[in-house]
């Protein structure tokens, strides 16, 4: 865990569409663009070793300038290796969501941003609990969704998985579009994220199979 006072006021930003990081989860990344190799080198020199994952967003009439979602999630580099062809294979461990304040111009080839952590103090606390979680019903919906989308998993592991790890991992792994991923990120708590996740799976089933959403 990391204390609130340890959270830096500025972090480097890694914009990736459709990629979701959540607190207390792990995200493997394959870093190969020169500017992000530089970003990682610089992040590893800091005490916090943190990188902010933020999705780009579309703006009507945008002139090509970088536009980002206002909320992202920061992760600490907890695993790092370099390949023979110069790529970095890293793992980010999710620490906390943040709100973007200002994108900073400078000499770096990547984005640095001033961020505000104050809206997400619960991210740094104990594991979140969904007191309304109905595992059998959830797994039934999930099974139908996986069948419809030709996904596979270890069902025995899912039956035993901790509810926060289960809901957050599925939110990260399921092939939702970027706006849907953002909705999962911005869910206030685990129960809201689970409700959003189920709704997205049901909409997929309704669209692909011509079914009515499950009640």
Automatic annotation (TrEMBL):
Domain Lon N-terminal residue range list: 11-205
Any single Pfam family the record assigns to this protein: LON_substr_bdg
GO biological process: proteolysis
Record carries keyword Disulfide bond: no
Keyword Kinase part of the UniProt annotation: no
Signal peptide location: none
One function term, GO molecular function aspect: peptidase activity
PROSITE patterns linked to this entry: LON_N
Protein name (record): ATP-dependent protease
Matching Gene3D superfamilies: LON domain-like
Keyword terms of this UniProt record: Hydrolase, Protease
